[in-house]
C-alpha cells in the first residue's frame, strides 16, 4: 500500500488511482472501478428552467435597488443606500448555481472515482481535499438500475432503511453513476453481496 497522500491539486486519473490504493485494506481487492461519464443531466433541466425567471427577477430587483440607491444618495442616504442593493446578491448567486446544475457533471466527473471491491463500495472525490464514502457489503440492499441504450447508466443502492422523526419510513441510498456498462457493475455488486451472505452463514 502506498502511504503517500495524493496531492489535492492533482485531480487527474493518477491522483484518484493513488487515493484508491490508499483505501485498500488487508485482503481487499478491486473487482471493478470507473469514473462517471461527463454528461449533461437532462433531469436537472427542470431546475434550470425554474432558475431563469428567478435569476432574471433577482438581477432586475438588484438593478432597480441600485438605481434607487444612486438616486437616494442625493438625499443623503449614505452607506445605507449603497448597501441596500447588496441584498439581491445572494439571490443572484443561488440563481446562477441552479442554472449550472445540469452542467456540473462536466466538471466533477474527472474528480470522482467509484470502486467495487470484494468487501465494499467506495466513492472517492478528490478536490482540495479527499472525500471518501464507503459502504460495507453487509449494508448493501435493494439496487435500482437506470440504463441507457448504450449500456451506460446509474445505480441507486439502498444502504439503510429507518424511520424519520415523523414516523415515516426513510431510505438512505448510495448513488453510483453514470458509468459505462452499468449492468456489469450491478452484477459485480450482486456477487459481492452473495459472497458476503455465504461467509456470514
UniProtKB/TrEMBL annotation:
<feature type="transmembrane region" description="Helical">
    <location>
        <begin position="79"/>
        <end position="104"/>
    </location>
</feature>
<keyword id="KW-1133">Transmembrane helix</keyword>
<protein>
    <recommendedName>
        <fullName>DUF304 domain-containing protein</fullName>
    </recommendedName>
</protein>
<keyword id="KW-0812">Transmembrane</keyword>
<feature type="transmembrane region" description="Helical">
    <location>
        <begin position="45"/>
        <end position="67"/>
    </location>
</feature>
<keyword id="KW-0472">Membrane</keyword>
Amino acid at each position: 500500500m502506498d502511504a503517500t497522500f495524493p496531492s489535492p491539486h492533482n485531480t487527474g486519473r493518477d491522483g484518484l488511482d493513488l487515493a484508491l490504493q490508499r483505501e485498500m485494506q488487508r485482503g481487499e481487492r478491486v473487482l471493478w472501478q470507473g469514473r462517471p461519464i461527463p454528461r449533461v443531466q437532462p433531469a436537472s433541466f427542470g431546475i434550470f428552467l425554474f432558475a431563469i425567471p428567478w435569476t432574471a427577477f433577482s438581477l432586475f430587483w438588484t438593478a432597480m435597488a441600485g438605481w434607487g440607491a444612486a438616486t437616494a444618495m442625493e438625499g443623503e442616504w449614505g452607506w445605507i443606500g449603497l448597501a441596500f442593493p447588496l441584498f439581491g446578491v445572494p439571490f443572484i448567486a443561488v440563481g446562477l448555481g441552479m442554472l449550472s446544475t445540469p452542467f456540473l457533471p462536466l466538471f466533477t466527473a474527472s474528480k470522482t472515482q467509484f470502486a467495487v471491491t470484494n468487501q465494499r463500495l467506495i466513492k472517492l472525490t478528490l478536490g482540495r481535499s479527499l472525500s471518501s464514502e464507503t459502504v460495507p457489503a453487509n449494508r448493501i440492499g435493494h439496487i435500482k438500475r437506470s440504463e441507457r441504450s448504450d449500456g451506460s447508466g446509474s445505480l441507486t443502492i439502498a444502504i439503510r432503511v429507518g424511520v424519520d422523526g415523523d414516523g415515516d419510513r426513510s431510505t438512505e441510498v448510495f448513488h453510483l453513476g453514470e458509468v459505462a456498462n452499468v449492468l456489469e457493475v450491478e452484477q459485480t455488486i450482486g456477487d459481492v453481496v452473495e459472497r458476503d451472505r455465504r461467509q456470514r452463514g
